[in-house]
Every structure is written in C-alpha cells, then in structure tokens.
C-alpha cells in the first residue's frame, strides 16, 4: 500500500560523465561537494555499456555557482551540463516492490512526463522531472495509487 507522493522544492541538476574505472566516483564527488558545504538532494550514478559513469546531482539553485566552481577546481577535465528547474517526485513506502515500480514508471510514461533520472531505495522510488511536469506527475501518481490528499 502506497502512503504518499511527495515532491521536492525546485532544484537545479548537474549531469556529468566520468571514467567507469573509478568505482568511487560518486562518493568522491559528494566528498568534494560536502567539504564545500553543498547539500545534495539526490545523487545517482549509472555505469553504461561503454564503461562510462553517468552521474546526476540535484541541489538548491542558490548553490549552483558553488557546485560548478568546486567541480571545475577538483575535476577540471570533466564535462558537465546543467539542468535548471527540476523536482524530485517520490512515492513512499516502496519496499522494493516490482509492481509499484512498474506502475510508477508506466504512469509517468502514459502521461508523457519526461523522467530524467530514476532512483530506488528500500523506502521510496523517486524520479527527477522538469518543473513544468511536476503537477501532472503528482496528480497521475496519486490517481494510480488511489491517494486522495495532495502531498507535494
């Protein structure tokens, strides 16, 4: 039974690519940003077929300049791109349930909500969507999981 759908405040995101040889890539980047007192709302690391690590980080828009400065200083050769005005949409509790994951993804797909990143944990399934799709994402997920209250 799903208890709630929740949305983060509006955030910015950074997508970067690193060598897949570094198994601690995300941990190292988070360490650098942590030393700079940057609060990361979501960090996702995916190793693709070409042995390249794709990393996506979400943070408060007020910290965008600090994030880019720290990445440039500590990783001068890394290429990255910024995604402005995104929100994290989460469904709780998730409990590693394949049916919930399928319904979550299918609902967003059926409603043409672009999912930039998908992440699961023991307690939730979350995705990153552009701000302009937040309302439709929340409303459609609440309908799919028969939730009457808005929890955004």
Biggest sheet descriptor: 7 strands, antiparallel
Q: Kindly state the mean pLDDT as a whole number?
A: 89
| End-to-end separation | 19 Å
What is the level 1 CATH name of the largest domain? Alpha Beta
CATH architecture field of the largest domain: 2-Layer Sandwich
Going by CATH, the homologous superfamily of the largest domain would be: ACT domain
Helix content: 25-40%
Q: Low-confidence parts lasting 5 or more residues at pLDDT below 50?
A: none
Query: What is the helix tally?
Result: 4
The total domain count is: 2
Report the sheet-strand fraction. 25-35%
- Rg value: 16 Å
Order of helices and strands: EEHEEHEHEEH
User: What is the CATH topology of the largest domain?
Assistant: Alpha-Beta Plaits
Structural class: alpha+beta
Number of strand elements: 7
Shape: globular
Itemize the secondary structure elements and their pairings.
Blueprint lengths: L3 E4 L3 E9 L5 H11 L4 E8 L4 E8 L4 H11 L5 E13 L5 H13 L6 E4 L4 E6 L3 H11 L8
Describe the structure.
With 152 residues, this protein is of the alpha+beta class. The chain has 2 domains: 4-9 and 86-144, 2-Layer Sandwich (Alpha-Beta Plaits); 12-84, ACT domain (Alpha-Beta Plaits), CATH 3.30.70. 30% of the residues lie in helices and 34% in strands. It is built from 4 helices and 7 strands. It has helices at residues 25-35, 64-74, 98-110, 134-144, and strands at residues 4-7, 11-19, 40-47, 52-59, 80-92, 117-120, 125-130. Strands 1, 2, 3, 4, 5, 6 and 7 form a 7-stranded antiparallel beta sheet that branches. Strand 3 and strand 4 (52-59) form a beta hairpin. Helix 3 (98-110) crosses helix 4 (134-144). The chain is globular, with a radius of gyration of 16 Å. The chain starts with a strand and ends in an 8-residue tail after the last helix.
């Amino acid at each position: 039974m799903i208890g709630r759908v929740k949305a983060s405040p509006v955030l910015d995101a950074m997508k970067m690519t690193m060598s897949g040889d570094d198994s601690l890539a995300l941990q190292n980047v988070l360490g650098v940003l942590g030393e700079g007192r940057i609060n990361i709302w979501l960090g996702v690391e995916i190793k693709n077929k070409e042995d390249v690590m794709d990393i996506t980080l979400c943070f408060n828009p007020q910290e965008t300049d600090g994030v880019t400065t720290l990445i440039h200083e500590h990783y001068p050769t890394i290429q990255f791109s910024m995604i402005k005005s995104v929100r994290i949409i989460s469904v709780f509790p998730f409990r590693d349930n394949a049916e919930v994951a399928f319904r979550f993804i299918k609902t967003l797909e059926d409603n043409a909500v672009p999912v930039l990143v998908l992440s699961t944990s023991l307690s939730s399934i979350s995705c990153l969507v552009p701000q302009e799709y937040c309302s439709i994402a929340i409303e459609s997920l609440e309908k799919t999981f028969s939730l009457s209250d808005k929890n955004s």
